[in-house]
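Design job #97: recover the sequence.
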């Protein structure tokens, strides 16, 4: 498989300066080995320990700061987004293994991490266990060590190598052209824990073979960075927990899952309402598709204009719920995309509204994926066409 093979044979220096705190020496060396080409300053004391953070263990802390990031080769004239320095630290936590924390305030829309995958598979390869094993065998010894220390949910009927892959890989669906989908596993991205209310968004850049993570909310200093592993964002906590235990072997303790605060009390209610709003839009879509179908008994009772208004009203409700739940990133961008599509169905008099929602989608995608992501660029083209009053 070309991509995994390529990155395995020619590891590149892509990661930002990452501080490792309170990480066992063996882990330090393996993590550093992955960050090829960066020199290590040991016991520098550059990164201070945040004593206010409950997960931080202050004894025997050793800090490592990696040297300035190298220049990244790329096509001439194309400025690739790079994570800024000194934003992250990897810390050993008592209950969640190694985790990634911010060392300073990070604004929404900041690229926090970019790395080449250890293994990257397309959708035809990813269901073949032997391909995972084969790609693993192509990694360097240092990379294999990094890989084998990643979290293993010990999935049944799988070898350790395959089980680790499925315990940590990110879904690349939507980021590869032609519906190739697939998935990728990275050394540092695997250290980002899950949250049902994530503060970073994963994306995959096909051109550079990079896994990228952008902050989708402002992140305060000392806060854990988390991404969402789970597609089922509109489900209640108990249902999410069952799936997470089954597929990933962990119990999420984010603010939407732990019964301890005001947010949690309202979270299930909001997610149920989100689910209802999505169902209502799907119902409108089905009704619209059935227009002209003689079998549709009451088709004459609800016209297209009413269906469009009903769908837009449900989507407006969904937008409000997502914002209250701080569930931004992909779910919110997709909601705006749907709103623009429905507004366009109003014909000429819906143009301004379609532009308004498309601009919102664009803003969300710039924050979550960056300006050079294909989806962001596609929206810009679409928006230009909408503003020019033509449909594409
Ligand atoms: Zn959760």
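Job complete. Output follows.
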């Amino acid at each position: 498989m070309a991509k995994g093979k390529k990155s395995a044979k020619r590891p590149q220096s892509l990661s930002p300066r990452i501080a490792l705190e309170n990480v066992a020496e063996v882990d330090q060396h393996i993590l550093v080995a992955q960050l090829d080409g960066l020199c290590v300053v040991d016991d520098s004391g550059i990164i201070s320990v945040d004593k206010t953070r409950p997960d931080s263990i202050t004894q025997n802390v050793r800090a490592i700061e990696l040297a300035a990031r190298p220049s990244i080769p790329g096509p001439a004239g194309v400025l690739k987004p790079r994570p800024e320095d000194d934003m992250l630290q990897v810390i050993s936590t008592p209950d969640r293994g190694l985790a990634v924390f911010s060392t300073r305030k990070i604004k929404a829309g900041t690229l926090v991490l970019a790395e080449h995958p250890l293994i990257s598979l397309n959708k035809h390869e990813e269901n073949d266990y032997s391909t995972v094993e084969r790609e693993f065998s192509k990694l360097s010894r240092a990379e294999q060590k990094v890989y084998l220390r990643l979290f293993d949910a010990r999935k049944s009927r799988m070898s350790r190598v395959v089980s680790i892959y499925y315990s940590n890989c990110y879904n690349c669906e939507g980021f590869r052209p032609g519906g190739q989908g697939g998935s990728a596993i990275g050394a540092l991205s695997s250290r980002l824990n899950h949250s049902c209310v994530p503060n970073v968004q994963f994306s995959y850049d096909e051109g550079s073979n990079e896994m990228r993570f952008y902050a989708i909310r402002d992140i305060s200093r000392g806060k854990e960075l988390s991404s969402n592993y789970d597609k089922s964002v509109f489900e209640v906590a108990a249902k999410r927990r069952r799936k997470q235990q089954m597929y990933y072997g962990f119990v999420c303790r984010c603010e939407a899952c732990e019964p301890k605060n005001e947010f949690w009390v309202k979270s299930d209610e909001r997610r149920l309402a989100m689910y209802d709003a999505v169902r209502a839009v799907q119902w409108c879509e089905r009704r619209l598709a059935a227009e002209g179908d003689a079998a549709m008994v009451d088709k004459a009772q609800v016209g297209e204009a009413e269906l469009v208004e009903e769908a837009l009203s449900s989507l407006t409700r969904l937008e409000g719920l997502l914002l209250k739940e701080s569930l931004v990133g992909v779910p919110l961008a997709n909601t705006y995309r749907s709103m623009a599509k429905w507004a366009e169905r109003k014909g000429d008099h819906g143009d301004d509204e379609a532009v308004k929602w498309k601009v919102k989608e664009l803003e969300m995608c710039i924050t979550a994926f960056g300006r050079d992501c294909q989806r962001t660029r596609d929206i810009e083209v679409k928006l230009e066409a909408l503003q020019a009053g033509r449909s594409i």
